[in-house]
Amino acid sequence: GAAALIWHEIIREKVTNFIMNQSKEQRILNFVLQNAVRGDPCSVVDTIDKYCSQKEWAMNVGNEKGLILDKTLEEVQPSVALELGTYCGYSAVRIARLLKAGAHLLTVEFNPEFAAIAKQMIEFAGVQDKVKLLEGPSEEIIPQLKKKYEVDTLDFVFLDHWKDRYTPDTILLQECNLLRKGSVLLADNVIVPGAPEFLNYIRNNPRFQCTNYPSHLEYMKVKDAMEKAVFLG
After folding, report:
1. Which of 25, 62, 147, 175 has the highest CB neighbour number within 10 Å of its CB?
2. How many beta carbons lie within 10 A of that of residue 81, not counting itself?
3. Which residue is catalytic, options 160, 169, 224, 227?
4. How far apart are CA 76 and CA 211, in angstroms?
5. Global pTM?
């Protein structure tokens, strides 16, 4: 799994970026703008999946684990959702298309280039009314959610950013009183690249009830998993 990631993320990507004089993320956006249906979030999601499975691998949640995300969202029916790690906007669009009327998603991205691409992706999908993109480090934005962004508590949190931030940000969400009894956390890539510290923390914490969903790394046959944690209060 690690070798495959190094090949796709570092070697192949850098060569292609140099030849084409643009980033992989820009190529994904261009493919969507040219091939997907404007205002149709399902078309946008399917088009990104097509590009990343056939042309260039990218770290979206992907369709297989995306179905686990969909199922969790349908169970939770969140009014206020938080995503940590927007990347190109794939999962933000995927989440937004399932939100009930009046519900909204706050999505946090540290990388300005990714944020700019995600903003265009979200607008092209027609879900900009449901999604607010917050740019900056998660550890700075989480403490601002209550006052600056008028969040009372979060019904659903999708962790898909730096794996070493999963644990401290989960602790920060609790310290900032952003979780209520029944709030659901869903963490991606807990096997590859892996989040062993987070799994150890969450599974041994009496305040959380955990479920593991074995799956595969996006667009590959490498084993991966998602971890769901329900906050018990």
Report:
1. 62
2. 25
3. 160
4. 14
5. 0.92
